[in-house]
Amino acid sequence: MRTFTASLKNELMKISKRKKFLILLIIEILICLLCGGINYLIGKASAGAISASLMLSNMPMNMLSFFIQIYIPLIIFMAACDLFAQEVQDGTIRASFMRPVSRFKLYVSKLSAVTIMSVVYLFVLFVLTTIIKLVGGSNMASAAGLLESFFAYFLDIFPLIVLILFTAMINQFLNSPSLSIVLCVIIYIGLYILGIVVPQSSGLLFTGYLEWHNLWLGVTLPVFSMLSKIGLLLGYGLVFGCIGYYLFERKEV
């Protein structure tokens, strides 16, 4: 456990040293502030015809839809490619392999570091949009509403983990970070569009479950349907995780 913790700290340190992730976090904050400001100004410009507090009342959930499907997946692609394909290309992965930590722990520590980074982005998004909602004077900011928003953010972490496992697996096939990012983006967009063009396939693709909270909040599905969807997501995670680790464990550099 001590070696895993040390390896995880090392991977987190690598991510924290890359300024682009800090810049992307600042951009996330600016997007939230801009959207909150626009909603507030629209409410004021309409002279009460459109309630600003009403528009801001559902901001945590409205912003979650954009960030969970577009913004955070792109950040995951970049972070995973930095920790896998980039290290293979520049040879620094050799130093990681020489450390007294098994490849399994090293692989899991890299996945955990990307997961923690994603959770940080989600947490900042939740806190900021909730503050904007409260500052906007929403009278719908009940404790139950905040708890529901928090639960939605928490649930959406699980499909993100599957996406991270998928991205890590793709990175094992390529040694070029640029090519890895491009391939991840193309596959992700392709699956996303396929889910829209062919709605019947959306339920079979892991990209169709990024807004995982929609299955749990509001009108819930029957138990059997929920179990089948949980099993499907777990299956994707296991397949991506096993293939990714198999290739990583046998990687020669």
UniProtKB/TrEMBL annotation:
Residues annotated as transmembrane: 21-43, 63-85, 106-131, 151-170, 182-210, 230-248
Keywords, ordered alphabetically: Membrane, Transmembrane, Transmembrane helix
Superkingdom, natural source: Bacteria
Keyword Transmembrane recorded: yes
Annotated coiled-coil segments of the chain: none
Pfam families reported in the protein's UniProt record: ABC2_membrane_4
Protein name: ABC transporter permease subunit
Origin species: Aminipila butyrica
